[in-house]
Amino acid sequence: MKWAVVRFPGSLDDNDALYALHNVLGQDASLLWHKNESLGDVECIVLPGGFSYGDYLRCGAIARFSPIMKSIAKFAADGGLVLGICNGFQILCEAHLLPGALTRNQSLSFVCETVTVRVENCHTPFTRLMQHGDLLRLPIKHGEGCYIAPEQELRQMEEHGQVLLRYVDSDGRQSERGNPNGSMRSIAGIANERFNVFGLMPHPEHAVEVMLGGDDGLKILRSIAASAAG
Amino acid sequence: MRIKVFVTPRRGILDPQGRAVETALANLGFSGVSDVHVGRYIVLTLDAPSKAAAEETVRKMCEQLFANPTIEDYRFEVEPG
User: Fold this and answer.
1) Three-class secondary structure of residue A78 per DSSP
2) Which of A34, A142, A203, A206 is catalytic?
3) Chain A residues with CB-CB distance to B under 8 A?
4) ipTM passes above 0.90
5) B16 and A105: CB-CB below 8 Å?
6) Where does the pLDDT of residue B80 fall: very low under 50, low under 70, confident under 90, or very high at 90 and above?
7) Cβ–Cβ contacts within 10 Å for residue B74, how many?
8) What's the CATH architecture for A2-229?
């Protein structure tokens, strides 16, 4: 499968995403500078974590106007797969490719830890190799990961199965203790209505080798790769 | 024209910064304080043919960039000169 990882000024996790895709999974993955307007013949676009444009104004608010974002909006409208991780998730929300917004953690503190998330919908290109209720251990590192959306929109998203990942405690239960940032309904990752755009705050690309703490992130990346093949 | 834009968290949206400031004020002994919100203040100079034209432009700026309508409200002032 052909992947492109977009590099914005201030991206941090672009090389890790590339490493996970290319070195660990053997995928055809390359970097794309944010000023590129052509995406080439890629099948999945990754917007990586980091602090694009220094998080000025709001996280992702300025990156969404990068020249490449117009092409990505068209790519998504045509059904192309888009994965936004952390800052990438924030950019997708700012660009209205995903509903809702990510705001300051309820604690006002930056969180950096490994969390447990539960798979809530396995019938998507991003989760197809997992089962409903599977628990993943993934790292998070963010100051603005508190997911917010209007109540009516949240209800619709739940009904459509657009909540793909939810923060839970180590027993797999949704709880205040298991919610690291105060996200509404403990939401950790959501998809758009067509299920071809996925944003999540945890970092699958940082969880690809058991030696480095776990490889649950591969389940997400492999699901996407399998979606292209199938 | 001189433009002042005020962006604040939308009413009803969780505002942990506002709540932290409110707690700090209470700890300092300020009584009667409630409904504290922390927002953003943006100033800029804009060349525009009229006040109405400036307002129209600034409204677009707010909707496209300065505020995220999902979580924030905005208001602005346009001062001639």
Assistant:
1) coil
2) A203
3) 57-58, 61-62, 65, 93-94, 99-101, 103-108, 146, 148-150, 182
4) no
5) yes
6) confident
7) 21
8) 3-Layer(aba) Sandwich (3.40)
- pLDDT for the residue A73: 97
B23 touching chain A per CB within 8 A: no
Report the distance separating Cα A144 and Cα A55, nearest Å: 10
What residue type is assigned to position A21 of the chain?
L
- Count Cβ atoms below 10 Å from residue A119 Cβ, excluding itself: 22
Chain B interface mutation, best of A55, A64, A103, highest count of B Cβ atoms under 10 Å: A103
Burial A146-176, CB ≥16 within 10 A → b, else e: bbbbbeeebeebeeebbbbbbbbbeeeeeee
Alpha helices in A50-106 (DSSP H): 67-77, 87-94
Q: Residues B45-60: pLDDT tens digits?
A: 999 999 999 999 999 9
Query: Residue A112: is it exposed, middle or buried by C-beta count within 10 angstroms (0-12/13-18/19+)?
Result: exposed
What is the domain partition of chain B in residue ranges? 2-79
Q: Exactly one of A86, A93, A120, A142 is catalytic; which is it? A: A86
Every domain of chain A and the residues it spans: 2-229
CATH of domain B2-79: 3.30.1280.10
Q: Does the pLDDT of residue A230 top 50, yes or no?
A: no
Which pLDDT band, with edges at 50, 70 and 90, does A112 fall under? very high
Q: What is the pLDDT of residues A167-208, one digit of tens each?
A: 999 999 999 999 999 999 999 999 999 999 999 999 999 999
Residue A37 tokens read as: 């307007």
